[in-house]
Structure formats: C-alpha cells, structure tokens
Amino acid sequence: MAENSGRDWIDISAKLLIPVVIAGGGTWFTWHKDAADKRQRQWERDSGYIKMLASTNDQEKNLGLKIIEVLQSEGQFSPELIPVVKAVAAGQRPSDPSTQTAVRILSKLPGDPSAQQPDGATQTAVPRAVYIQIGHEEQHDRAVLLQIALRKMGYTTPALEQVEHPTFHTFIRFFSKNTQADAYKIQEAMTHMGYAPEVQDFTAAQQPDSYGLEIWFGDKEPGQVAGGSQ
C-alpha cells in the first residue's frame, strides 16, 4: 500500500513538473532566440556603419561617424567598431573633420589607454605622420623634396593633398603638445631649405592623442625657393 502511495506521489510530482519544465524550456528558448536576434541586428547595424566609414565619399563617412558618436552618447556604442574608428583617426590629416570626430569618439571610450597617459607617454616609438597640403600644381616638386627631407628625419609623409582653398602663408600646424617640439624641428629644416614657415598651435581644437602634423603651403609660396639649400 505504501509502495502504491509512493508511486502515486511520483506520478503527481511528474505531472506537476512537466509544465514547469516545458515553461522553463520555452523561456530559455525565447531568451536564446532574442539574444541571437539582437546579435544579428547588432552585426547588421555595425556592418552598415563600417561600410560608411570605409566609403570614399567624405559626406557618407562623416555621417557614419556622427551616427556612431550619437550612439556612444546614448550608451549604445559597439566595441566591434573600435578598430575601424581607429583606422579613420589615423588615416587622415588631424584637421580633417572625420579625423576629429573619430579622435573624439576614441577619447570617450572607458579605459582608453591613450586618454590616461600623460603627454609624451604614448606612441614614442611610432614615427610622426606629416601631412602636406599644397595649393597649386607648381608647388608639387618642392613638396616632394620636402617629403624626402622629412622622411630622412624619421617622419612618415602620406600622399600630397592639393586643396581648393590654401592658406595665404606657409604654416606648420601641430595638434598635440606631444608634437610641439616636432613642429619647431620641422620649421628649422624648412627654413634651411629656403622656406619661411610659421608654427601654429592647434591643440585647443583636438584631443591629446592627435600625433599628426600638417604643413600648408601658402597660396603665394613659389614652386622653387630661391636662395635655399636643396
């Protein structure tokens, strides 16, 4: 009799547990599916932003960065975007709007090592990039000679950029206190070559980890500089 009572208790317990197990399994399946769907939507969204940031269209790239910056302010920044944002920050001259936005995004990342280290403590072994902007095709050859001289000094010099609206005078611009000494070092070399560049401090417009410098050939800067050392 006791054996039958025990069996009945087991049967009753099993019948009661089956709905619980089914409900629990359904809840887990729904949670797992929702998580998978969320990851899929995140991946599709991030892929779209990555495509925008890789675009050769400056407007599309800037729009992608602006959207990412808004998402970051709302706590929805995806870590998967960090490498591509870093690539934008390092791939163009510091004063480019897309570079400024990318640097601003990176500076707000929690635990970002570059934002925590003092001036001069990061990228000490990485060659500084010097971006050269010319206003006229006639300045191209002299700019190439300057590129060669800068490379001998240990700097990297990306492709020359001919701008539609050049500066009037020739300027060397630095965007971080880390590169202030480099700006004056380059000024000395350019003066020796026959130029008369002025150094401009743009640190107020940039974040501390902007390690590139810019040289803007003035609108009136001749293609050949008389009296300078070649």
Summarize the structure in words.
There is one protein chain. It is built from seven helices and five strands, in the order αααααβαββαββ. It has 230 residues and is α/β, with parallel strands linked by helices. It has two domains: 113 residues, no CATH class; 97 residues, Alpha-Beta Plaits (2-Layer Sandwich). The chain has a five-stranded mixed beta sheet with strand order 2-1-5-3-4, with helices on one face. The radius of gyration is 29 Å and the shape is elongated.
Q: Quote the beta fraction.
A: 5-15%
Helix content: 40-55%
Mean pLDDT, all residues: 75
Q: SSE order in H/E notation? A: HHHHHEHEEHEE
Number of helices: 7
Shape: elongated
Ranges where pLDDT stays below 50 over 5 or more residues in a row are 113-125
Q: Can you lay out the helices and strands and say which pair or pack?
A:
Layout: H1 2-53, H2 58-73, H3 82-91, H4 97-107, H5 113-116, E1 130-134, H6 140-152, E2 161-162, E3 171-174, H7 180-193, E4 198-201, E5 213-216
Parallel strand pairs: 1-2, 1-5, 3-4
Antiparallel strand pairs: 3-5
List descriptors.
230 residues; alpha/beta; 52% helix; 5-stranded mixed β-sheet; Alpha-Beta Plaits
